[in-house]
């Protein structure tokens, strides 16, 4: 029987019981796994500080692969690996996004060394209103997430001229994420960035968004860096996730587990499917790994 030594979980749609919190019951199972000798880590599209804040709320301290692999940090915050977009690549991504005749209602954020940045507050408000009107579970969760981010915590820096900010203040740019409830525009935007901007990797964590990083900034590379750091063979790594940005880590790990709410393409390459994120899917999967049911 393979003894798994590292368990890596996505956040949104996976270990987060809703869009903002890890259930205390899940945190307890994570601690039980760690006591049994299974290291735990997070691999997320979120920035490091936001991911760490969520973990801190339930008393978990672990390595974090953030920005879809753009940054890999140990449990103490030591940077193991970073890969960022060049200034030219970042500006080219912005030039595509700023085609108002195509993407006037597409809102985006940029993850940078200087923090999380957005521009055009009118688009934030419009995006939130569209999400609220959609009324489905994910849209309402996203609406509440944006409302907290912009109007409660105010943890996003709003800038007037993002091109100037990229050139003079941003430092390293790790990721762009663009949102729209018009799903066909997300598909068109994905294709255009992929074709026009060299040196970037485009993926998605939901059909209402796309994410843009430098080539090599993906969760697969992030998981490899963690495995190397801990001296763990990839065959001894378990990963769990729900969407397309999890595909690279599914392709490198010894065991890949999809959530019950996963994208069909992810389920197709998984070894097992667990319950949904709001049905303690991660906790149940971790129990099955611990007791040898999923060998």
From TrEMBL:
InterPro entries: Cof (IPR000150), HAD-like_sf (IPR036412), HAD-SF_hydro_IIB (IPR006379), HAD_sf (IPR023214). GO terms for molecular function: hydrolase activity. Its EC number is 3.1.3.-. Pfam families: Hydrolase_3 (PF08282). Keywords: Hydrolase. The keyword Hydrolase applies. CDD domains: HAD_Pase. It comes from the Bacteria. PANTHER family: 5-AMINO-6-(5-PHOSPHO-D-RIBITYLAMINO)URACIL PHOSPHATASE YCSE (PTHR10000:SF55), PHOSPHOSERINE PHOSPHATASE (PTHR10000). This is Cof-type HAD-IIB family hydrolase. It comes from Exiguobacterium mexicanum.
